[in-house]
Model the fold of this input.
Amino acid sequence: MHQKKAEVVDSLQIVSFKIGNEEYGVDILKVQEIQKVPKVLKLPFSKDYILGVIDLRGKVIPIVDLGKKFGLMSELSKSNRIVVVDVDGKKIGLSIDTISNVVNIDTDKIDPPPPVVKGISSKYVVGIAKQKAGFIVVLDINQIFSAEELESFEELKR
Done:
């Protein structure tokens, strides 16, 4: 008698979004919430990719323009959204152009990142997911910010 081995297909559920014409995604378990861009308090002498801070239910959250952080063109518009993510226990708002959707991607459909991905350091990238509509660059949210940047975000809250 032949026993069939159960195939385990691992999948990753990601929130996908656009910055410019490119599609990116982050693990849904890292996403706390998605909202329209609220009033942002701009802070003097901060890095150009830091839009400022917002009040999120009594907590001060730094807002980062992910397009600028990656060296991509992005403009604030009514369709922009803030994706609040958890990075090493710290909440950070990522300003992105538009939310696309939540997708389940089989891990075998995610290729490792090439050495250079559109100017973004490949350490930020988990891989490139192949979808019917094109590619999604799957980001490692824990690698996007250095320890120094995370510390500077904490200083913004003071």
Remarks:
- The chain is about 10% helix and 50% strand.
- Residues 30 and 86 are 5 Å apart (CA to CA).
